[in-house]
Write a structure and sequence with these properties.
Elements: H1 3-10, E1 20-23, E2 26-32, E3 39-47, E4 50-54, H2 61-73, E5 81-86, H3 91-94, H4 96-104, E6 107-111, H5 115-121, H6 130-138, H7 142-152, E7 167-169, E8 174-177, E9 180-186, E10 195-199, E11 204-208, H8 229-242, E12 247-250, H9 259-282, H10 288-294, H11 309-328, E13 332-337, E14 340-345
Parallel strand pairs: 4-5, 5-6, 6-7, 11-12
Antiparallel strand pairs: 1-2, 2-3, 3-4, 8-9, 9-10, 10-11, 13-14
């Protein structure tokens, strides 16, 4: 069965455990997650002395068991993983790496621009979602911030699982995995240090959360967000669009035949979102919270109040990013009143 046929056969069940061949010497392994994302894909790349894994999964017993089972079906064990190349420092991508390193000595690598996030996450005193809660309050969502704050206390990951990597991946680095050459392309936005790994010769893009086939990634969900994460994200999408097209190997969802096609869809989505955001301001919404409540959410176009509480936080954070970009584009003006940002159309004089 060709890799395209195998992908099509599993497109409706991408999160089922196991190892799926997606290219010669490359296997997609979905590892379970404790939330609606269902699973995170890690990719096992064969090399003469074992394996390199792109992304590591979350430090959960059932994720570790699923990884062990999948690798066993390929004739390997977790101890054969020589290196984890992690796209970004989120729990579902990073934390199983340091755990495996303790047991087997595997190397863990991640982009150097994730250093501030890892330093914060590795501090036992760092409050969960501190930056996002501050952003909620600045956007007029005080009650939602209080609700999230109570929930966030149970969301932490043990600080020792945010250990520093063995070495940092620098922007544009070429990483050799056997005969394979992976280009580490900086793609900030989802996080400041997000990387995708492009194998031009084999026509593969290991896209992490930067390009996902069915959903749009959250923007700036990290302890130390960038100044303009949406601007960064859209610029990074255009950067990927300029690369030679490749098979899309995402962190969540099935493999897709064209990274370019999905990038075009994401750019169109955010153009539409910017227009809808401006329309809401013109209709009288003045804060990020008010605008978020006017917009539909998810592919099912759910009302804001119908979202789970965590996703309401993400919705306000994303709306804030769109409003900030419209300010940068001199379409909107922002003012501050009693700690809350308000937006109006036009340029400040």
């Amino acid at each position: 069965m060709s890799s395209e046929t195998a992908t099509a056969a599993r497109a409706g069940s991408w999160s089922e455990p196991g190892a799926e061949p997606v290219a010669p010497g490359v296997h997609r392994i979905p590892l379970p997650l404790p939330d609606e994302l269902a699973a995170v894909n890690v990719y096992a790349l064969e090399r003469p002395d074992g394996l390199t894994l792109i992304d590591a999964g979350q430090a959960l017993r059932r994720a570790r068991a699923a990884l062990e089972h999948a690798l066993s079906s390929l004739g390997y064990a977790v101890g054969d993983v020589r290196e984890f190349l992690v796209t970004h420092a989120h729990r579902d991508h990073y934390t199983l790496g340091p755990q495996a390193r303790r047991d087997h000595g595997s190397r863990v690598r991640v982009g150097i621009r994730e250093a501030p996030a890892l330093a914060a996450l590795g501090s036992p005193d760092w409050p969960a979602y501190a930056a996002q809660l501050a952003l909620l309050r600045a956007n007029g969502a005080e009650a939602l911030a209080d609700e999230i704050g109570d929930d966030a206390k149970a969301q932490g990951i043990a600080a020792d699982l945010w250990e520093a990597p063995d070495s940092w991946i620098v922007d544009e680095e070429i990483i050799e995995v056997g005969d394979r050459r992976l280009h580490a392309v900086p793609t900030p936005g989802h996080t400041q240090g997000h990387l995708v790994f492009h194998d031009e010769h084999a026509g593969l893009l290991f896209a992490g959360d930067h390009v996902l086939p069915h959903i749009t990634p959250s923007i700036g969900l990290e302890p130390v967000p960038g100044r303009s994460p949406l601007r960064d994200f859209l610029g990074a999408l255009r950067r990927v669009r300029r690369l030679p097209d490749a098979l899309l190997l995402p962190a969540h969802g099935p493999v897709a035949p064209s990274a370019h096609a999905r990038v075009d869809e994401l750019l169109t989505h955010h153009d539409e979102r910017l227009r809808n955001t401006l329309t809401a301001v013109r209709a009288g919404c003045t804060t990020g919270f008010q605008v978020a409540r006017e917009l539909p959410w998810t592919r099912r176009r759910v009302d804001f109040d119908g979202l789970p509480v965590f996703h309401r936080m993400l919705a306000v954070v994303e709306t804030s990013a769109h409003l900030e970009l419209l300010v940068e584009q001199n379409v909107l003006t922002q003012t501050f009143d009693a700690g809350v940002i308000t937006y109006t159309e036009g340029v400040a004089r």
